[in-house]
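Re: [help] complex structure
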Amino acid sequence: MYLGIDLGGTHIAAGLVNEEGKLLKKVSCSNLINKTYKEYVKNMADLCKKILDEEGMAISQIKSVGIGIPGTPNNTMGTVTCNSSIKLDDAPIREEFQKYYNIEVNVENDANCAALAEAVAGAAKDVDHSVTITLGTGIGVGIVINKKVYSGFNYAGAEAGHIVIVTDGEKCPCGRSGCWEAYSSAPALIREAKKLLQSNENKDSLILKMANGDLSRIDGRIIFEASKQGDKIAKEVIDKYAKYLSEGVANIINVLMPEVFVIGGGISRQGDYLLDMIRSRVYEKIYTKSEPKTVIKVAELGVDAGLIGAAMLGK
Amino acid sequence: MYLGIDLGGTHIAAGLVNEEGKLLKKVSCSNLINKTYKEYVKNMADLCKKILDEEGMAISQIKSVGIGIPGTPNNTMGTVTCNSSIKLDDAPIREEFQKYYNIEVNVENDANCAALAEAVAGAAKDVDHSVTITLGTGIGVGIVINKKVYSGFNYAGAEAGHIVIVTDGEKCPCGRSGCWEAYSSAPALIREAKKLLQSNENKDSLILKMANGDLSRIDGRIIFEASKQGDKIAKEVIDKYAKYLSEGVANIINVLMPEVFVIGGGISRQGDYLLDMIRSRVYEKIYTKSEPKTVIKVAELGVDAGLIGAAMLGK
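Output below.
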């Protein structure tokens, strides 16, 4: 048995996961930002204690604990640097956690954890090499090679949301211009919709009706729903979104040629409506025209992918 | 001891390589295009025989033979598909070679071979994870993870010359628009110079003088030489070239985070004059600002990288 922990901006979740990557129990608590690393770790240890107590288990029955974080881990040192709503600077997470439980502790980036989860127990479980992207406020990317996370010599790899697909294009928070993330994240989708809706001739778009005329209420789901109902503006926005998303997917396939490419995150709930648009574009763009080709699939583990993957780090 | 073979468009080269990746002997013959795979393999076997005869060695003293080809190999089947000046369609190279010598035969893409060579005996020999690019008529890219070539589930990977860095940009022979290769190959450099030199106000550029006024004689070396001598047009061309080359290098570093990134091929002979421009731009662009960072180096093995790497496939 393994324990996995997902340290998020609003919640910390912990789960008991078996050897096959099946989540057997999950607990969570709300997470306040601007805590110290010691407070985060205390919360994590409390969640683990809760699982052990409720299951009547001892820590000796757990092989290892994995912690997924939205930042850059150093799994040699057991330290973590985050620069999102959670701020950590080389925080000694492993050492601190081991004050509560003397057990193997692994730290890993949350997108890499999600990729490992899909590789062990989700959409890529039948193959050795896979890539999983998580479409959300950014694009998280995880590379799995031979069923192990690959993140480069300094654990900072698979930041493929920050490959430039439009040189000198849209500004990205990372400092570059034209990153894939700046075109294919949920905020990018909403930005493009708002751009078109600012024109008077587009004021009768279904998107605006569904958002009760309030631009600030537009989200990805509304845009997709309006597109499915035939709204011209929504279709135009989704078409452009699919185009740029496909450029990035094709780029990664050309570099890494995974057997399965998994698309997760909120937008992936659109399922085949989105994926069919991506597949047709990507198969036109990739370098290798012969069979077998990379299979593009929707993620299967949803919001639990992060903690399942964290648990599987010690497998 | 190993034998490595580099099947090129104009020459076939073969070499005797030791365990450390040192090339001990090299022979070659000219290669006519439009041959059958049987003729290519006969030439390869003849070169190997020449090495063995001249060294007084028996094939039993050779651990394996590796063949680098400018196409897509399938090392499970021992077959090769090429669609360059050499045309091969699923040609059973291994089976054919084993008619001459009953020995382990590996087939691999030539850019992947070059990357393996640099990883075993060249610029990346001290690290586990490296990427090597070869700047030529295209961009060849090879990924080495834990000292082994990584080319994906179907051997078609590391075609990173075909990551789009300018969506809807310059047409690429691969069918996409805006590929890195379409901006950072030698022909791309020359194309940009010619564009500027077509304007009358640029007719006094040193590039044209060095090419004796003949646009068709412009090559990469001339453009770099003119730039070093202060020519304004050449500087502008090189600056643009370095910009796009850096976008691709930074993209690959963000995805794979190799410990060493090696730049080889003809243009890399410009050494630090080019690399200093690349380094300053790339370190601004990569996602990870903390140390340690990927080190960017010039390739060390030159034109022999392909056959050294081919030999090392069996190591």
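Chain B touches chain A through 49 residues (CB under 8 Å).
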